[in-house]
Each structure stands twice: as C-alpha cells, then as structure tokens.
Amino acid sequence: MSMKPLEFDRRYGELDQVISAYLGEAADDEPDKPSLALQAYLRHTWHTRPWALGTAEQQLREYARNPPGRLRQRLGEFDPVPDVGVPDSGIQNWLLQLADHIKRSIEEGQVPPLATPETHWEWRVRFPELAQFFGGWFSQDMPDEFTEHDAAVDDYAATTDRQLIARAVGELHELLALDLEDIDYALALAELGMEVEPPAPLSPADWLALIADRLRDVQVDYGTPQDS
Q1: I need a surface site. Which of 24, 41, 55, 156 has the fewest CB within 10 A?
Q2: What contacts 175, CB < 8 A, 6 or more positions away?
Q3: Can you list the pairs that 88-96 forms with residues at least 24 positions away whose Cβ atoms lie under 8 Å?
Q4: Is 102 within 8 Å of 50 (Cβ atoms)?
Q5: CA 109, chain centre distance (Å)
Q6: pLDDT > 70: what percent of the chain?
Q7: CB 58 within 8 A of CB 100
Q8: CA angle, corner 45, sides to 59 and 80, nearest 5?
Q9: In 42-123, where do the E strands start and end?
C-alpha cells in the first residue's frame, strides 16, 4: 500500500524539496562548499520558509541512516530519491554532507543575500505564477492559439483568478527589480517556460513592464465599483 501524502510529507516532504533542487544540476557538493543546487535551495528557503531548514536537516539524516529497503520500495511505501548522478554507494555520505551544510548554515546564521536565481529550479520556485503564465500562454503553440502576444495576455487575464493575477503582477515587478541585461531577461523568460520571442521591437524588459501595467489595469478594473 502506497504511503499516504500526509505521512510522506512528515517523513520525506522537505527532503523531497532539497532533492528537487538538484534535478538538472550537478551534485558536486564538497565538505567546505555546497553545490550550486544546494546554494539555491538555501537561498530560497532562508527567505521564504526558514523554519523548514531544520526539518530538511533532520529528514536528510534520517533517510541516510535508515534508507527504506527494497521490499518497501516495491510496495510503494515511499518515493525513491531521484537519480541526481550520485552512485548508490555514495548516496548515504552525500545526504549526510547536505545535512551538515544545512546544519552549519542554521547554527552560524549564514543567510544568503537575495540574488538573481542561478538554477532552473530556483527560477520556478521564486516566480511560480510567472512560470505558470509564460509556460501556459507562451509555449511554442502560442502563434497557433492567439493572433498576437496581447491576445494571449488578455486570455490569461480573462481566465485566471484575480488573486493569481495580482500575484503575477507582484512577481513581474520583482523580476524587473533584478535589473538584468536584455540577454539575461531573455534567459529568465526561457527558464520560466516561454518558448516564443517577445513582440518586436520591444526588449524583454520593456515587454515585461508593459505586461505588468496591462495586468495591473485588470486589477484596477476589478476593483472599480459598478454603477447601480
């Protein structure tokens, strides 16, 4: 019988978050230097859910010391650790090393400064609604579904809960506050799921600012009292 979601979260939920940060990234942690993936996890978690760090450290150690056996794997009692390129013989030491890094970060108060995301995972967890927006409305199929970029934005605004639209506006302003070069904004859009170019002749930053204004106007319209 598969493990119930609540039981899984209690045992492995935060461990799963740590491991997810490694998908597509090198698990090249060293005793004196966490990998890029773990740095991204620490940075995001310190600034959004600092209380989860202690849980992550505990779950990593518990899993490393008492890994589920093959029978429990076949029975589906837990989700196995995804393949991150670490050989089976090295998984235990690697997990304990991650726990040591997290413990050191907590005990020494090593709060990473806010910075531009450095991994695909970090882009998507920092800007979740933009990942939904760009990945859902600006995939490679966008030209077949909409006549122009503005039509896609209007469709998002018309079919999305206003609270999520407000979240997208906030994330757009946060993205613009990174003050990146155009090439870096283009890369950011790709990380967030966009598969088409911004409309010419606008730069990525100018287009993002235009979308923010357009969606903010939608919020203003929602908040305008109707005439009786």
Answers
A1: 24
A2: 127, 130, 185, 188, 208
A3: 91/64, 91/67, 92/64, 92/65, 92/67, 93/64, 94/27, 94/29, 95/60, 95/61, 95/63, 95/64, 96/60, 96/61, 96/64
A4: no
A5: 23
A6: 86
A7: no
A8: 35
A9: none
228 Cα distance to chain centroid: 44
Dmax (CA) of the chain:
72
| C-alpha dist (Å) from residue 97 to 38, 60, 68, 75, 178 | 11, 9, 19, 29, 32
pLDDT given at position 227: 46
pTM of the complete model:
0.87
Alpha carbons 110 and 42: distance in angstroms, whole number: 9
Reported as type and span, the H/E element at residue 211 is: helix 204-223
Q: DSSP of 141-183, one letter per residue?
A: THHHH-SSHHHHHHHHHHHS-HHHHHHHHHHHHHHHTT---HH
In this predicted model, what pLDDT tens digit does every residue of 28-50 receive, in sequence order?
999 999 999 999 999 999 999 99
CA pair distance 212, 167, nearest whole angstrom:
11
Per DSSP, what are the bridge partners of residue 33?
30
pLDDT digits (tens, 9 = 90+) for 207-228: 999 999 999 987 655 555 444 3
Instruction: Please give the structure tokens belonging to residue 140.
Output: 């490679």
Q: By the 8 A CB rule, do 135 and 149 touch?
A: no
